[in-house]
Design a protein that fits this description.
By secondary structure, this protein is mainly alpha-helical. It has helices spanning about 1-35, 70-90, 95-120, 145-170, and strands spanning about 40-45, 50-55, 120-130. Strands 1-2-3 form a 3-stranded antiparallel beta sheet. Helix 1 crosses helix 3 (about 95-120) and helix 2 (about 70-90) runs antiparallel to helix 3 (about 95-120).
């Protein structure tokens, strides 16, 4: 019984982490939408701008040019992935780094699902640009991204670290 209640408490902790990501993501996107017109931005440093961009696709605008079906596909994918992540959180409450990682991914995925449901696209605004990226991206601008994307990336990196640690222990 104690294990079950501590597992439930752990699940709520990790869902709270995901909720924090969602709230931070949605607040920043609301601020951007309220402050900038589409494609409008401001230079912050020589390599970083805040610019309002809309992405109807996935990472790196994958499928952005599709006929509109991708919106519902990415919503369904995000919801399915979220259900799977909650299931994993319930199965592995004792794996702290793993649970932290998938909680970040959960929050990021749901943050972008909310955008797709509300707007039909994801709002991006973090624009980094470096000369060494010019061979890969126009004028060296890495594709704009947001807090949800950042959480997903950090979560994926934590999953890799967790797996490397698990392999090392084995």
């Amino acid at each position: 019984m104690h294990t079950s209640s501590s597992a439930r408490l752990g699940l709520w902790l990790w869902l709270g982490v995901a909720l924090l990501v969602i709230v931070a993501d949605q607040i920043t996107k609301t601020l951007i939408v309220g402050s900038f017109a589409l494609h409008e931005g401001v230079s912050v440093t020589s390599f970083f701008n805040i610019v309002r961009a809309h992405n109807t696709g996935a990472a790196f605008s994958f499928l952005a040019g599709a006929a509109g079906w991708q919106r519902w596909f990415f919503i369904a994918l995000g919801i399915a992935a979220s259900a799977f992540i909650v299931w994993m959180l319930r199965r592995h409450p004792e794996q702290t780094l793993f649970c932290f990682a998938v909680s970040l991914i959960l929050g990021g995925a749901l943050g972008n699902v909310i955008d797709r449901l509300l707007h039909g696209h994801v709002v991006d605004f973090l624009d980094f640009h470096f000369a060494f990226l010019q061979p890969l991206f126009p004028m060296g601008h890495f594709p704009a991204f947001n807090v949800a994307d950042s959480a997903i990336t950090v979560g994926a990196a934590c999953l890799i670290i967790d797996e490397l640690r698990r392999v090392r222990r084995a």
